[in-house]
Amino acid sequence: NIEITYFGTPAVAAYNVRQVYKDLILTITIALVTITLLISLVYRNKRTIILLIAPILYGFLFSLAFIYLVKGSISLIAIGLGSIILGVALSYSIHVLSHSFYSADTEKLIKELAYPLTVGSITTIGAFVGLTFTNSALLQDFGIFASTNILGTCIFCLIFLPHFLKKETAESSTIGIRAINKINSY
Questions:
Q1: Within a 10 A sphere around the Cβ of 106, how many other Cβ atoms?
Q2: Sign of dihedral through CA atoms 172, 177, 183, 186?
Q3: Cα–Cα distance for residue pair 96/106, rounded to 1 Å
Q4: Considering only CA atoms, which of 73, 54, 64 is closest in space to residue 149?
Q5: What span, in angstroms and rounded, lies between the C-alpha atoms of 105 and 140?
Q6: Per the confidence metrics, is the pTM higher than 0.85?
Q7: How many whole angstroms separate alpha carbon 157 and alpha carbon 25?
Q8: How far apart are alpha carbons 82 and 29 in whole angstroms?
Q9: How far is Cα 170 from Cα 105, in angstroms, rounded to an integer?
Q10: pLDDT of 114-158, one tens digit each?
């Protein structure tokens, strides 16, 4: 009758890595599914959903590329916390797409959105850059990841996204958009 048990930092660390990975996949999946469902209810067009999510994916890849070039590695926990950034980044593409319903042409759209999106992204990026001055490696990683993610999303929204927009009017929009416009009119 022999009972073997193990204890110590290596065992705990191995378990923590597995748990963080599972939690990372779970949080990002829940965030993406929730966001996609909500967007699907408002924008019932598959092309529109792709246009809303493309800037987020670009921002994510931009951030990972930046971190790889500058730092070389990042904490998985920081990427898991990045699911918070999905909602913030999504607001940029929603703003551009919604504004396109009321803008006469793409050039006018860019002129009208360049200043507010740039200022909004600079303030958000500044808040996340502040995390890089902490003593926590996790918060530093999250600050770099979040700030470069927002930067990449904003770049995509201002430079690339307007080229993919078709001219649609608010009148031809879905019931969800008309409901939001009705609420806003009050």
A1: 15
A2: negative
A3: 10
A4: 64
A5: 41
A6: no
A7: 26
A8: 12
A9: 14
A10: 898 899 899 999 999 999 999 988 888 889 999 999 999 999 999
